[in-house]
Amino acid sequence: MGLPALAEQWPTTNDGIERVESELLQLPQVDCPLIHRFAPGVYLREIFMPAGIFVIGHEHKTEHFNIVTEGCARVMMDGIAEVISAPRAFVSGAGVRKVLYIEQDMRWITVHPTNETDLEKLEAELIVKSPSFMQHLDDLKALQKLVSEDSQ
Fold it and tell me: Which end of the chain has fewer CB atoms within 10 angstroms, the N or the C?
């Protein structure tokens, strides 16, 4: 599904996002570097997303701050499509998933209230990974196992 098709038919529900995510996970994935920072009672997660890609976020379990410090993207969240440009700060609620088309290199920060500092525990505490994403991870593990067995 190319940009024109997706832009005309933005998924507005988690089921719609799941269908698009399933299709996009079949394509080569782009590395989006993360930086994790901690302060007493606060976890800050910063992601860099290069221009020209789609990004689908995980569903968040909690309300949290979003701070866009660089770039511009078309964003669908809570059933509403809008352009988000830096600088911008806003709160998104629990249960929200975002679909982004990155128009200009973007740096996006989320801020979460927590005392946890273990990244695996933070994921379990803060996000819900979709069935499509979990299947993608399982497929990657199976592929890595096959490659490992073939090289022995």
Answer: C
How many residues in total does the chain contain? 152
pLDDT band at residue 1, thresholds of 50, 70 and 90? Answer: very low
Burial class (CB in 10 A: 0-12, 13-18, 19+), 9: exposed
119: Cα separation from own chain's centroid: 16
Residue 124 tokens read as 């379990």
Spell 29-42 as b/e; 16+ CB within 10 A means b. Answer: eeeeeeeeeeeeee
Q: How does DSSP classify residue 50?
A: -
With both helix axes pointing from N to C terminus, report the angle between 131-150 and 14-24 in degrees, rounded to the nearest 10.
Answer: 20
Query: What is the arithmetic mean of pLDDT over 124-133?
Result: 82
